[in-house]
Design brief:
360 residues; alpha/beta; globular; binds nicotinamide-adenine-dinucleotide; binds 2'deoxy-thymidine-5'-diphospho-alpha-D-glucose
Length: 360
């Protein structure tokens, strides 16, 4: 039985990946989920799988080399899928240091522990061991509105402390590939959306605010473009790259689904109005009048757009979920998980929201 060590599995994409992998492989794989449970990690996301014999949760910090080395010593790990990170750009602008610690040092610890566990005396690696580093398209910087795309060969030009820390972590992985022939891949993915996404990010924030008749904050002119991918398509891409990709290679993952932020917000409002039953009192609250233009994000990247040509040609991955379907599925999930939203937005979230938006 193949054993996966998943880092950050209690966060948004990690959770969806774990559910995807158990749906796909059932009891043929074992997953160890290591997560320190920051504000973004939530064990409630994994309640359905927590009693499975082939699933284990370990609370540990990826910057804690001793704890991570112990995990490798006590388990025969075949695959590492490394999601754990600080992931929100706005937080990185306010508090960059934790991004360097988790994203850079944490990745160094993961790489070093995997290398130590998998390396043979002659410097080669045990067969069929693989490390996948989950990264972002933000490392490539910002595109103009001119129809160009991010390719795997696009030079790195990160702008935010978040993207700079992810770029550094990618460089570390590349250095292990080049120096030690370490068996790794990197995926650089565009903006994900779907169930379990924390409502600091645009789509769940807008859904949550709109349903309460709260303002919908649009940064700048609302015309920044992101390339949105349904999270299950990302999970599938990660698994396909790990099993079918050429070791040492980077693969971009994206949906060719570019939209301006204001378009996304209007689609969410229209879809909520369509999906809410006629007698639901929230229907009267959801309105385009809630849209409020606020001060722009500092250093706000204008446009992201992935060219997923390589992953399609070499591996046969393509996005499957059309945005119209993915957004309905996401909204339906949030309708069915009101408690989840209440739980994650109680306590610290209120403080975060006030600090980030009150005087904006
Ligand atoms: P998230 O913020 O929702 O989840 C991050 C998880 O990592 C949380 O469970 C958190 O508790 C855990 N974590 C944070 N610091 C840790 C530490 N020191 N030790 C152990 N666990 C720790 O993030 P996400 O949106 O699910 O993103 C996951 C990964 O995918 C990140 O590496 C991110 O850079 C990358 N990515 C995200 C997107 C996106 O649109 N969300 C797109 C491309 C790539
Ligand atoms: O591109 C991949 C990246 O996508 C990931 O690496 C990051 O982890 C993930 O957070 C995401 O980064 P973005 O900054 O693009 O996502 P966010 O949801 O924060 O913002 C999307 C766009 O919406 C961005 O242009 C900023 C804008 N925005 C965001 C918020 C939270 C607003 O206009 N208002 C808001 O309140």
């Amino acid at each position: 039985m193949r054993t996966y060590l998943v880092t950050g599995g209690a966060g948004f994409i990690g959770t969806n990946y774990i559910h995807y992998m158990f749906r796909k492989y059932g009891d043929a794989i074992r997953i160890i989920n290591v997560d320190v449970l920051t504000y973004a990690g939530n064990l409630e996301n994994l309640r359905e799988v927590e009693d499975k014999e082939n699933y284990t949760f370990v609370r540990a910090d990826i910057t804690d080399a001793e704890a991570i080395a112990k995990l490798f010593a006590e388990n025969e790990i075949d695959r590492v899928v490394h999601f754990a990170a600080e992931s929100h750009v706005d937080r990185s602008i306010r508090d960059p240091e934790v991004f360097v610690k988790t994203n850079v040092l944490g990745t160094a610890v993961m790489l070093n522990c995997a290398k130590t566990a998998w390396e043979l005396p002659d410097g080669s690696f045990m067969p069929d061991k693989k490390f996948l580093h989950v990264s972002t398209d933000e490392v490539y910087g910002s595109l103009e509105e001119d129809g160009t795309y991010f390719y795997e060969t696009t030079p790195y030009a990160p702008h935010s402390p978040y993207s700079a820390s992810k770029a550094s972590s990618d460089m570390l992985v590349k250095s292990y590939i080049d120096t030690y022939h370490f068996p790794a891949n990197i995926t650089n993915c565009s903006n994900n959306y779907g169930p379990y996404q924390f409502p600091e990010k645009l789509i769940p924030l807008v859904i949550n605010n709109a349903l309460q008749g709260k303002k919908l904050p649009v940064y700048g002119d609302g015309k920044n473009v992101r390339d949105w991918l349904y999270v299950d398509d990302h999970a599938k891409g990660i698994d396909m790259v790990q099993e079918l990709g050429r070791l040492g290679e980077t693969y971009n993952i994206g949906g060719h689904n570019e939209k301006q932020n204001i378009e996304i917000i209007n689609i969410i409002i229209d879809t909520l109005q369509e999906m809410l039953p006629a007698d639901d009192p929230r229907r009267a609250l959801v309105s385009r009048d809630l849209i409020t233009y606020v001060e722009d994000r500092k250093g706000h990247d204008r446009r992201y757009a992935i060219a997923p040509d390589k992953i399609k040609a070499e591996i046969g991955w393509e996005p499957e979920t059309k945005f119209e379907d993915g957004i309905r599925r996401t909204i339906a999930w949030f309708f069915e998980h009101e408690e989840w939203m209440k739980n994650v937005t109680s306590g610290d979230y209120q403080k975060y929201y006030e600090e980030m938006y009150q005087n904006r």
